[in-house]
C-alpha cells in the first residue's frame, strides 16, 4: 500500500484511512503490517554493532507488530502516555524503531539521543527536553546515567530481544498532542535547538518521498533500503524509515558507514537503494577497482546530498548507481524539499533539482531583495497556498523567538546560499550559517568556540570549516593565546583533548592554528569570511597543526 498526503490510502480498492490527518505513524504501521505481515520490516546485517555476532537478523511486520504491542503495554503499565517525552539512546538498532512505534501509539514523543555526545551535552538535552525517562542499553548505561539528572529514570533493554521493564516516568507530560519526536539540531547560537516534529510531519515526508517518481520510484513490498545514517538525524528518523513503512519495504539500518564492507553489506542485504552522505562517494572511490564494482543490476538509486562535484560522475560510471541529490532541512521537512530525481540532473555541478509545484521560494540578497536568475542569494521557502507551514516543523521547543525569526515575513529563512538557472534548476553554493558540515554532522562554530574559551591558555578564538577530501569539511580553530610563547604542538593537543572532554568527538578541532589576532568587522565582530580565508591560508602554508588523528569515535580502534 502506498499512502498519499493528497488522497486516502487504498488497498484492493478499499480506503484505509478516511481521516488522513488523524493518522499517526503507528496507525500507518498497523495498516502496512496487515498488508505485508510476512515481509521483512527491519533487517540488521551480520556484524553490525557487535563484531562477535556472526548472524544477520530480521524482523517481519507481523513479528514487529507483536513486539510493539508488548512494549506499548509495558509503557502503559508503567504510567507513560500522551504528552510524555522519552529520550531513546539505542544507536541505529532495530529496537529504536520498535520503541518509537510503541510510544507513538500512546501519543508520547521521543527524543533521539546520540550517546557519543559528552556528558554535558547529553545533560543539556535531557534537561531542556523535559524527558520522563531515558531508554538505552548496557554499552551506554554508565555514560548516560552520569549525564542525566538523578531523578530521571534510565532504563536498560536487552538489545537482541527488547526485554523491557521500566519504572514510572519522571514528571508530567510536556509534548503537544501531535508531537511524535523532538529532534535536536545544531544552531548558530551555541546550544542545539529542539525541533518539534509532528505525526503529520512524518506522514508528509513519507508521502512526498514515495511519490517522487523518476529515479526515486518505490515498488510496494519489494524495496530494501539500506542506510548508515544516524537515527538522531531527520534523514534516517523520517525519510528512509517512512519510505519503507509506507510501501511495505524493509529498512536495513547499519550501525554506521563501513567503507571496506559497504558493497558486501548491500549484496548480503539484497538492498535495492541506499541513502548516502556527501563523504561516502569519495571514500568508496578510494577503494581499488574490482570487476564486481558495477551494482546497477541490484541497486537502482542512491539518495542523499552533498556529493563532491569531482566524485559525482566518476562514482556513477564506476558503480552504475545514480546519486540523486536533494535539498531539505530538519525544519523544512516535506514542506520545502527539492530533489534531482529526473533529468536533467546536471551531474557534478551541485544541482539538487527543480522546485515542486507545491513550493513557494525566493532567492534574496543581504537587503532581502530578490536577485536575478543566475545570481547567488539566500533561499527562502514556504508551502504554497494558505497553509504556508504545511509539512514544516512545529517550531523550536522553548524558543518562540528563534521560531519567529526563522519565519520572519512568513518565509522560512534557510541560511543556505543557492542560485537558480534559466531552466529552473537549483544549485547549492554555500551556507550563511556559521556551521561546519563534517561527515553529515552540523557543528555550530559558536559551540566549539565556547568550549575553547574555557581553556585557561586561550585568550580569543574563532572556528572555521576547512575542506576535507574524506569528511567534506573539518573543524579548524584559530587561537589567540594569553601567552603567545606557549604556542606548541603539545599545547594544541592539550586543547584538543579539552574539547574532546567537553564535546562530542567530531566537534573537536581537527586543526589548530596559533595566530596573533583575529580578523574583525568595523563593529568588532568576528569577520567570518576573512577567518575562513585565514584558516585556509594557514593550512596551505603549513601554519596549522594537524590533529585529525586524535578525533576518534568512542571505542574505535586506534
The CATH superfamily title of the largest domain: ANL, N-terminal domain
Largest sheet: 8 strands, mixed
**Cα end-to-end separation:** 47 Å
Helical content stands at 25-40%
Form type: globular
Under CATH at level 1, the class of the largest domain stands as Alpha Beta
- Quote the CATH topology of the largest domain: Rossmann fold
Beta-strand fraction estimate? 15-25%
Please identify, by name, the CATH architecture of the largest domain.
Answer: 3-Layer(aba) Sandwich
The helix count comes to 14
- Helix/strand structural class: alpha/beta
Unreliable spans: 1-21
Q: What is the alpha-carbon Rg in Å?
A: 23 Å
User: Average pLDDT value?
Assistant: 90
Q: How many separate structural domains?
A: 2
User: How do the strands of the widest beta sheet line up side by side?
Assistant: 4-3-12-11-13-14-15-16
What's the β-strand tally? 27
Describe this structure in words.
The chain is α/β, with parallel strands linked by helices and 558 residues long. The protein folds into 2 domains: 25-417, 3-Layer(aba) Sandwich (Rossmann fold), CATH 3.40.50; 438-550, ANL, C-terminal domain (GMP Synthetase, Chain A, domain 3, 2-Layer Sandwich), CATH 3.30.300. It contains 14 helices and 27 strands.
SSE layout:
Blueprint: E1 10-11, E2 14-15, H1 25-35, E3 40-44, E4 57-60, H2 61-78, E5 85-89, H3 94-105, E6 109-112, H4 119-128, E7 133-136, H5 141-147, E8 154-156, E9 179-185, E10 193-198, H6 199-210, E11 224-227, H7 234-245, E12 250-253, H8 262-269, E13 273-277, H9 279-285, E14 301-305, H10 309-319, E15 323-327, E16 338-339, E17 351-354, E18 359-364, E19 377-383, H11 400-406, E20 412-420, E21 425-431, E22 435-438, E23 441-444, H12 445-453, E24 458-468, E25 472-481, H13 489-502, E26 511-514, H14 528-540, E27 545-546
Parallel strand pairs: 3-12, 5-6, 5-7, 7-8, 11-12, 11-13, 13-14, 14-15, 25-26
Antiparallel strand pairs: 1-2, 3-4, 9-10, 15-16, 17-21, 18-19, 19-20, 20-21, 22-23, 24-25, 26-27
Helix pairs in contact: 1-2, 1-3, 2-3, 4-5, 6-7, 9-10
